[in-house]
Amino acid sequence: MEENDKIVVFKSFSDDVAAHMVMDILKENGIDCFLTGENLNYTGMPLPIAGVDLNLFERDIPRANEILKEQRKK
Q1: DSSP symbols for 3-72
Q2: Angle between helical axes of 16-28 and 61-73 (0-180°, round to 10)
Q3: 20 to 30 A Cα–Cα from 61, which one of 7, 19, 25, 49?
């Protein structure tokens, strides 16, 4: 595995709706990504440390930032 193939947490969200929205935008633009921690929000107990993380390849960070920047302009 090469250095730029490392999977990193790109952004963290307090709710899964926002996380899914950003993930969908990135996927529509060809960025492979996935969510972790999503199911912890549905345990029935409030977990203040629980959040949803959007993960992607480290090499895709610059492009993902540009995609989201363009999206905010719309």
Answers
A1: GGG-EEEEEEESSHHHHHHHHHHHHHTT--EEEESGGGGGSSS--TT--EEEEEEGGGHHHHHHHHHHHH
A2: 100
A3: 49
* Sign of the torsion angle spanned by Cα atoms 74, 23, 12, 14: positive
Total residue length of the chain: 74
* CA within 13 Å, CB half, 27: 11
pTM for this predicted structure: 0.82
Q: How many angstroms separate the CA atoms of 40 and 49, rounded?
A: 9
Residue type at position 46: P
Angle at 66 between CA 68 and CA 32, to 5 degrees: 75
Q: Is pLDDT of 48 > 80?
A: no
Check residues 1 and 51 and name the one with the higher pLDDT. 51
CB 12 within 8 A of CB 51: yes
